Structures are given as C-alpha cells and as structure tokens.
Amino acid sequence: MSDPSSPHQPGGTQSGRPGESQAYESEADRPDPHRWWALAVIATAQLMVVLDATIVNIALPSAQRALGISNGNRQWVITAYTLAFGGLLLLGGRVADLVGRRRTFIIGLIGFAGASAIGGASGGQEMLYLSRALQGVFAALLAPSALSLLTTTFPAGKERAQAFGIFSAIAGGGSAIGLLLGGILTEWLSWRWCLYVNVPIAILTVIGALTLLRDRRGTTGAHLDILGALLGSTGLVAIVYGFSRAEALGWSSAEVLAVLSVGVALLVAFAWWQTRASAPLLPLRIVRDRNRGGSMIVMAMTTIGLFGAFLFLTYFLQNILGYSPLSAGLAFLPLSAGIIIGSTQISARLLPLVAPRLLLVPGLLLSAGGMYSLTFLDVDSTYAGHILPGTILLGFGLGLTFLPIISTATSGVPARDSGVTSATVNTAQQVGGSIGTSLLNTIATTVTATYLTSHLAAAAREGGLTPAERMRIVNAGTVHGFTVAIAWAAIILLAAALIGAVMINGKSPRARAAEEAAAL
Asked: Could you read off the pLDDT of 232-279 as tens digits, one per residue?
C-alpha cells in the first residue's frame, strides 16, 4: 500500500483506499499552496504544547505561595499534566486518524485554551490540579494531530526536510523557551499569565487552522479499540505516575514498585491484544520497522538527557548562582539557539542528501560531549566560563539529532496510521522526559545525601562549622549530586548514539530516488 508520506514515492502519490474517492485523493495529492502558512499554524500549536511542560516550572514557587500548596503537593502541578498527556497520547493519535486530524487539532486547541483559562483563574490548589490535567488531555489530542498534519502537508522531498527542521527546532527548543517565557511573565505580570498566555495563542491558531489547514476525511466505518485504549492508556499512566512518585519516595518504595509493575503488566497485555484486535489502537507493524522502532528508542533516550540538563541547570542557576527566574530563563537562550541552528541550517539542508544516522549519531556524540563538560561544575563555576560552552554544544548536537529522528519515525507510514504514529513519537518523548526527570533527580539526591552525611560528620568531629561554612558544604554537596547525575545523562546520550548507529540504517532520499530510477 502506498502513501503520500512515504519517502519511497518521489511523486508523493497515493493509491486508492476503500472509503475514499479517487477525486478526493487527486485533490489531496496536489501540493497545498498554503503549506508554509499551514506550517506556521502547526508549529505554533506544537510550541504551545511543548513550552507548557516547563513554563509553569519557574512560576511554581509563586503559585505555591498564592494558593497555599504544600511542598509535598506542589509536584502535582507538573505531574497532573504529564500523567494525562503521556497516558492518553496513543488514544489521541488514533482518534485523530478516525475522525480527521484537522478536526482533532481544532478540538485540542479549543480545549487546551479553556483548560488554561481555568488554571489561570484558579482560586485553590484543587482547581489548578484539575486544569493541568485537562490541559494534558487536550494536549494528547493536539500533539499527534499536529505532527501528522505536518507529515501529510509535506509528504516528501527537500520541503519536507525544511519543514521538519523547523518543527524539530520547536520540539527541542520549546522547553527552554518555556523557561524564559515563564520567567518573563512571572516577574512582569503574574504566575497566572503563564496559563492565560495560551488563550490568545490558541484563538489565533484556531483561526489559522480553519482557514489554512486541509486534511483527508476521517476513516469511515472504523471502530476504536476500546480494550486496547484502556490497557495502553492505563499502562502508560501507571508508568508515568510510578516514575513521578520515585522522585519523592525512592525507587525501593513499595508504592513505586507496585505501580511500575502494574504498568509493565498492562503494557504487556496491551501488546498481546494488539496482535489479536481487528482494529488495533497501535498496529504493531508501525514499531516493528527497524528504522522507526530505533528512532523512537533514540527519541526517548535523547529526551532523558535533555530534561536532565533543564532540571539541574535550572536549580544551579537559581539556587547556587542566585539568578532570578527571568535571568535563569535568559541563560537557556544559547541552548535554544543551538537547537534552532542545528535543525534548520544543518540538518534540514543535509537530510535530503545523507542517511539519517550520519546526522543523528554525530549529533548525539556532540550532545554527550556538551553534557560531559557540565560535569566539571562546582560552587565557584561561572555561567560564561563553565555553563555557556557546554549548553551551546549540547543544543547544537540536539539540533542535529531531533530532525532525523522525527523524520525517520514518521516516514513511510500509511495515511490511516499517521496520527497514531505521531502519537507514538510524542509518547516516546514524554515518557523519556518523565523517566529522565525522576531517574536523574533520584541519582542526584542520593549522591548529595551521601556527600552531606560524610562531610558534615567529618566537620563536626573537627570542631563544628560556622553558618557560612555549613552552607558552602551544602551547596558543594548539591552540585556534586548534579554533576554525577549529569554524567549519567551523558552516558545515556552515548548509548542512544550507539543504538542509532546500529538500528537506524535507512538511506537518504537522494539514494532511494536513484535506486528507484535505476529499477525503472
């Protein structure tokens, strides 16, 4: 079966499918004259979803004071979003395939804006938690439909590489942009505007979607895999929840082990059911493909490293160097610039000409090098001398990496599966981020606790400490924990480079076109 998104079809044509007229397909196969404006609409929606995972982080201390949220409960402002988002992505992707991506995209935008308005107006912590969960629900509809619309709007060729370069830059740099925007809004307006800001953005994006986006009709006569949706969504929610609780309770906690075990069991049952369901939620042919499966593994591992950098550098800048929220957000701009330049100026230009792994493997090695350079931080480190070089190298490497990963993962997918494929890519990214935050933070806190126990005890035996000396030891222990966790993030990025080199063996579009021409 052929498909407009397939790189194996130079013309981007598509053979007929039951339930779709040939006239409609001929019209759909013509290049969209508004495709670059459509890209702006899709990219804006993706930016809104990505930055909302971090924009609240910097605003969280202000929101905590305003609503009287305890330290134990403040994690739910973040976790409510990630749980709903990560757990429902596969379901959202399949809904987009069934009812139409453009329709799902618009519904997701409207719902996301409404949930954001509720969160901004929150009078208590429960209302804020609920609004964040609703944001996650509608983000799970919005994110996969955005990526699948991009896949079908730019089916092949040089334009596809350019469009995916822009999209990848936003997917990678949006989190850093969220930190900056969160700092600006919190300092100049209020923490509530970190949520309110989504409303005008969503309204403009809905107008653009109604006027600029086009899409095929939903699949007629299709049925949603209800059991698969329950098993897959519940399993993912359990996994994301387990990792989020590990940060607070530790990996040996009975609650964490039980929840993760249930999550794994549910996902195993989900995989088994997908081989027997008549209309599976996630057709296993999508992830069995060597290049696609490898891309999704690499995406998850790369996101672990990226979220680790955000987590520890945010704390280092504010707690060790004493940066304000706005200054901390500005400090991430070079990382975002590196991602944008790497994606749009290097990857987008080279991807049509070279094999994907010739970009992503060097990109991951550069990222690992940038991450490794951050392991030399100490309490006397400066931003310009120690943090800036590493973040520039990390950002540039990620810019080389994200485009070939996303493009390879979504290439060659039948149009009827583009939504769920896009959802699977987003799921890999979201679960990777959750694992990264919890795993690396657990490593950091454990190492810090061990350091403080030994050093404070030794100092006490030697006659005690002044408050300034004690604070320096505490800061040194905190930074030591950061650097050990960052070292593990660098190792994970190296492992991702190895997996990418071994599993992702797809050829460049130019090489495939030459092979097809020779076969004629």
From this structure: 878 877 887 787 677 677 778 888 899 999 989 998 998 888 888 777
Closest Cα to residue 99, out of 283, 229, 226, 222?
Answer: 222
Question: Could you tell me the two tokens for 113?
Answer: 């804006």
Reference 153, options 9, 37, 291; nearest CA is 37
Q: Which amino acid is at 309?
A: A
- Backbone φ, ψ for residue 298 (5° rounding): -65, -40
100 and 141 Cβ atoms separated by less than 8 Å: no
Beta carbons of 206 and 106 less than 8 angstroms apart: yes
Identify the pLDDT of residue 14: 38
What number of other Cβ atoms are within 10 A of residue 245's Cβ? 19
CB 102, CB 215: distance < 8 Å:
yes
Which of 222-226, 282-286, 499-503 is the least confident region? Answer: 222-226
Q: Buried b / exposed e across 312-325, counting CB within 10 Å, b at 16+? A: bbbbbbbebeebeb
SS3 of residue 463 by DSSP? coil
CA distance 442 to 436: 10
Q: Find all residues with CB under 8 Å of 514, minimum gap 6, and list them.
A: none
CA atoms within 13 A on the CB side of 229: 13
- Positions of E strands within 174-240: none
In angstroms, the CA 36 to CA 318 distance is 39
Q: Which pair of structure tokens corresponds to residue 455? A: 């050093």
- In terms of Cβ atoms closer than 10 Å to its own Cβ (0-12, 13-18, 19+), residue 264 is middle
Max intra-chain CA distance, the chain = 87
The residues near 264 (Cβ < 8 Å, ≥ 6 apart) are 235, 239
Task: Report how far residue 431's alpha carbon sits from residue 240's, in angstroms, rounded to the nearest whole number.
Answer: 7
Buried b (16+ CB within 10 A) or exposed e, 1-21: ebbbbbbebeebebeeeeebe
Report yes or no: 182 and 59 within 8 Å, Cβ to Cβ: yes
Q: Nearest 5 degrees, angle CA 462-CA 463-CA 469?
A: 90
Asked whether the predicted pLDDT for residue 320 surpasses 70, the reply is yes
Q: How many CA atoms lie within 13 Å of 145's alpha carbon, on the beta-carbon side?
A: 31
Q: Tell me the three state secondary structure of residue 214.
A: coil
What is the percent of the chain where pLDDT is above 90? 11
By three-state DSSP, how is residue 494 classified? helix
CB 127 within 8 A of CB 82: no
Quote the strand ranges of 152-197, DSSP E.
Answer: none
Contact 243, 434 (CB under 8 A): yes
- How far is CA 457 from each of CA 2, 173, 378, 448, 451, rounded to the nearest angstrom? 68, 43, 21, 14, 10
- Of 469, 511, 486, nearest in space to 351 by CA: 511
User: pTM score, two decimals?
Assistant: 0.75
